[in-house]
Amino acid sequence: MEKFVIRGGNKLKGKVRISGAKNGVLAMMPATILCPGVFTLRNVPNLRDVWTMSRLLNDMGIYSELNGDELFIDSRNIHSFEAPYEHVKKMRASFYVLGPLVGRFGKAKVSLPGGCAWGPRPVDLHLKGLEKLGAEISIEGGYVIAKANKLIGTRIHLDVPSVGATGNIMMAAVLAKGTTIISNAAIEPEITALAKFLIKMGAKIHGVGTNILEIEGVDSLNQTNEVVIPDRIEAGTMLIAGAITEGTVTIEGCNPYHITSVISKMEEAGCNFEIRDDKVTVQIDGPPKPVDITTAVYPGFPTDMQSQWVAFMLKANGVSKITETIYPDRFKHIPELQRLGAQIEMSDNTAIVYGGKKLSGATVMGSDLRGSAALVLGALIAEGTTEVLRIYHIDRGYESIDRKLRALGADIERVPTDEF
Ligand code: UD1
Fold first, then answer.
1. pLDDT for the residue numbered 115
2. Which segments of the chain have a pLDDT < 50?
3. pLDDT tens digit sequence for 95-120
4. Which phi and psi (to 5°) does residue 314 adopt?
């Protein structure tokens, strides 16, 4: 096991390169199931979740190899249609193999993901959508068993614009007979990027980037190469790291349009921005003003930035309210931030943050990816030394966050530990 040892108080300064989007590549890798071929994905982040997806695909007969930021994938020899619990329990995105397996082979056995550290995360919309396309679905021994002869295009309205359900259903529908319409589809940039990748593979998808996707089924797809979009959550996290320390940080290689909700809230808090092409510089004079946020689907304020915003507001002189509407229980970071001296009260799905109080270093424990990022941000402004345990959570979704923060001037070390 490893932990971070962070001595707070340094202002961050400099430039940092944003990696490819975790949630982008995790949707694209399973899409290669749809067609026997060789693919190269570029701008791929070197993350635990990418390794987990590689291992899962490998067990199915899909060979992959990551060289630098290039991921080579050979999907010509698929021999298994199963995603076992050992992979899915580690990473819910494993569930993305279901749609492409049913779409291409008409059979799949995929473990149900179960709950997660911050509450229930159902997959009913994925299953209902596949059933509407004609798949026969049953649940046996914790597994979803899906069977179909040929999927038939249909109309599918999602009760909520689920990212995963949109991706899974879209991947199943590209090889269906006839036209599928997904309404109230997710419009997160990673879904748009997945649709563009599928189109490059020969799929016919109209309405990309809107919440109504029209998918005309085709008989087969072709191999192709693609560049992964930048990670908007890493981008937002690094901007907050700059602002929370009252430093000046430039993120490079990002898509500023994907983070407008975060930038606009940071502006309300008093941050100054310079935006040019794929670079965004943040700077702030003094501590931020308290600003309330409510998480929402894209282009609203992302739930994946909620915990980092809680940390940011610890620095503000005043009271702010952070309301979580996507995952109402996603607040595992609060008791750990309280160990640093944070004053936060919970009222249902709202965290009320009394900012401006002095934080002091302590040992804290991460229990999910973004919550762990909030602990690192809190540690950057705490007096003294903070140890963040269980950093394997953070390594799931941030490529070398310690190296990147250190290059900006943070005092952060990764050290081996026996503590769990
Ligand atoms: C994806 C992201 C995750 C992000 C989330 C919301 C990936 C790999 N993960 O997760 O980082 O936090 O989007 O932006 O891309 N829901 C249902 N039934 C379903 C599916 C979802 O009710 O079948 C609900 C969920 O409980 C939640 C909401 O829909 O309230 C959004 O979830 P969803 O968009 O599906 O999230 P994920 O795809 O799991």
1. 64
2. none
3. 999 999 999 999 999 999 876 676 67
4. -65, -25
Q: Burial-class residue 146 by CB neighbours within 10 Å (0-12, 13-18, 19+).
A: buried
Q: Which of 124, 126, 163 to mutate to test the pocket of ligand 1 (most atoms within 8 A of CB)?
A: 163
Distance CA 234, CA 14 (A): 16
Q: 116 an active-site residue?
A: yes
382 touches 353 (CB < 8 A) = no
- DSSP code at position 211: S
262 HSE (CA, 13 A, CB side): 29
Distance CA 174, CA 64 (A): 23
pLDDT of residue 118: 64
Same fold yes or no, 2-19+230-416 and 22-227: yes
Is cis: bond before 113, omega within 30 of 0? no
d(CA 103, CA 82): 14
Q: How far apart are CA 323 and CA 321, in angstroms?
A: 6
Is residue 166 classed as helix, strand or coil in its secondary structure?
A: helix
Catalytic pick among 35, 116, 254, 271: 116
CA quadruple 165, 171, 177, 179: dihedral sign: positive
Cα distance between residue 268 and residue 110, in whole Å:
44
What residues does ligand 1 touch, defined as CB less than 6 Å away?
Answer: 23, 26, 92-93, 121-126, 160, 162-165, 186, 190, 303-304, 326-327
Residue 205 tokens read as 């998808």
d(CA 127, CA 124): 5
Cα separations (Å) of 180 from 15, 35, 125, 127, 151?
44, 19, 15, 15, 10
| Separation CA 289–CA 323 (nearest Å) | 17
| CATH T-level topology, domain 22-227 | UDP-n-acetylglucosamine1-carboxyvinyl-transferase; Chain (3.65.10)
Say which DSSP state 269 is in.
Answer: T
Q: Whose CA is nearest to atom 7 of ligand 1?
A: 23
* Sequence spans of domains, the chain: 2-19+230-416, 22-227
CATH class of 2-19+230-416: alpha beta
Tens of pLDDT along 121-160? 899 999 999 999 999 999 999 999 999 999 999 999 999 9
The CA–CA distances, whole Å, from 146 to 110, 203, 388, 416 equal 8, 22, 41, 43
Residue 169, token pair as written in the block? 């259903």
